[in-house]
Amino acid sequence: MATQSAPTAPALPVSLDDVVAARMRIMDSIVATPTLVSRTLSDLTGATVYLKFENLQFTAAYKERGALNTLLQLPANTSGVIAASAGNHAQGLSYHANRLGIPSTIVMPKNTPIVKVTQTQGHGATVILEGETFDAAYAHARKLEAEQGLTFVHPFDDPRIIAGQGTVALEMLEAVPDLDTLVVPIGGGGLISGMATVAKAQAHPIEVIGVQAELYPSMYNQINGTEMPCAGDTLAEGIAVKVPGGITREIVAALTDDIVLVGERRLEEAVSLLLQIEKTVVEGAGAAGLAALLSEPERFRGKKVGIVLCGGNIDTRLLANVLLRDLARSGRLARLRVRLQDRPGALFHVARIFHEQGVNIIEVYHQRIFTTLPAKGLITDIECETRDRAHLERLMTALRRAQYEVSQTELA
């Protein structure tokens, strides 16, 4: 009796051969960024941590790979390309389009930070500001595509984009062939789709874990059948995508092992650690992989883990805020509220205690009017710099022993 063979699973939209072909196309014009072990982060997390420095691309993000792979496959008579993007896709596409002599148009929401508009224009693109949201900018880009005969280049839901992004994994596995796990940020899903395609084609098993911000669990919702909201201001705006791609969803569902959600505090901590330890600047999305290890250390302990630092385009003021908040959480920077009596020498006696404890005073704020204290009462907020949390605690103990009421302003 003849046996009936099991049905063959349908082929996915992108194969390992597609990624290898993409690499051959783009390799002369893309930085083969290093994959380096971080001894300090390995000690901190309990995993052996390898970092892929995609923030060292010319436009400081991996998006160049997929954009260039797509541009090189367009017909010779292409009149121009268009995209909707307020981030790294805009810069990657416009840079390589300009280099290849292809006119590019980028539609951005009107509230896009001026630095991103200027950087994209600097790569030769025509920038059009339209609408208050990405959806409005996207709709306008598709309208211009039809009206002007332009070619729309999607930021993630295109097999050519996905194949280009997958070249990140080819380079990582050439540098470290025995990686156990890849931890990859997910926005629309282009990067993880390409990398999972490569990882799951290897001779040894490689776990592929996606990472999303808790505020934007869009792919997590689609894979797990949940309906968590996607909204809010996240540090990882590069992966703040409300609706992931259809092609990418198919690949993620088939090839990834799990998706981890990370909170804003872990994202901030990861950005700060990468700057302090590795001396490298990453944006929130670029730090998402490390944030996952910090959130769930037991899950990755003892494994060889590859993390993609997928981008480094972070606003300098935002970066400064992240670093200062991290100093505050560690106790090295603090704001103390001290209740005084409004009399001569009151502030001098408090300052003397700071001096005795070896604490540097940065700023002093007096509050006499807008307070619930009696008319002779005084609140003083003192920003100070200490060596660590223990040093701060010694200062607060000394103030209380001197009969001062003191409290610390805590961060969320």
UniProtKB/TrEMBL annotation:
Gene3D superfamilies: 3.30.70.260, 3.40.50.1100. One of its GO terms (molecular function) is threonine deaminase activity. Pfam families: ACT, PALP. The keyword Lyase applies. Residues 335-412 form the ACT domain. It catalyses: L-serine = pyruvate + NH4(+). Keywords: Lyase, Pyridoxal phosphate. It comes from the Bacteria. CDD domains: ACT_ThrD-II-like, Thr-dehyd. Its EC number is 4.3.1.19. Belongs to the serine/threonine dehydratase family. This is Threonine ammonia-lyase.
